[in-house]
Design brief:
This protein is α+β, with helices and mostly antiparallel strands and 123 residues long. The chain has an 8-stranded antiparallel barrel with strand order 2-3-4-5-6-7-8-9. The longest helix is centred in the N-terminal third of the chain and has 14 residues, at 3-16. The chain has one domain. It has helices spanning 3-16, 32-39, 109-112; strands spanning 27-29, 43-46, 49-53, 58-63, 66-75, 78-85, 94-101, 104-108, 116-122.
Length: 123
């Protein structure tokens, strides 16, 4: 192979790699107690709305599409939730991997294999 071909392959591989620090900057929250210490009595906000995760297993909040209600439970090292927005049907249970970085909480859907979303923790 020529130098240009090798350089082209290396550049292509580097461009396809995820940005360092994106997922790695969040520390995995592994226990229900640690999770509750982060969210209990707090509001979680994102561009789509806000929610509160209550210690009694309930979820409540507001979105642009209406009121958000739901339930949650801890399963192993995952946060499992089922929510409904407005008059829409329930979304179905999704167990998510939770990470924390400062005042940001990351939710990775489908047991940590799906898409990630970040919410800001505030009082």
């Amino acid at each position: 192979m020529t130098y240009k071909v090798i350089l082209s392959i290396v550049v292509s591989v580097l461009l396809a790699m995820p940005v360092a620090g994106e997922a790695g900057s969040f520390k995995h929250v592994k226990t229900e107690a640690d999770f509750l210490a982060l969210v209990s009595g707090k509001t979680l906000s994102a561009d789509w709305g806000s929610m509160q995760i209550l210690p009694n297993g309930k979820i409540k909040g507001k979105t642009k599409q209406g009121k958000l209600v739901g339930a949650w439970q801890w399963n192993g090292a995952l946060w499992c939730r089922n929510v409904r927005i407005g008059k829409q049907p329930e979304r179905g249970t999704d167990c998510q991997k939770i990470g924390v970085s400062g005042n940001q909480l990351q939710f990775i859907r489908e047991q940590g294999r799906g898409t990630a979303g970040v919410m800001v923790i505030s009082n």
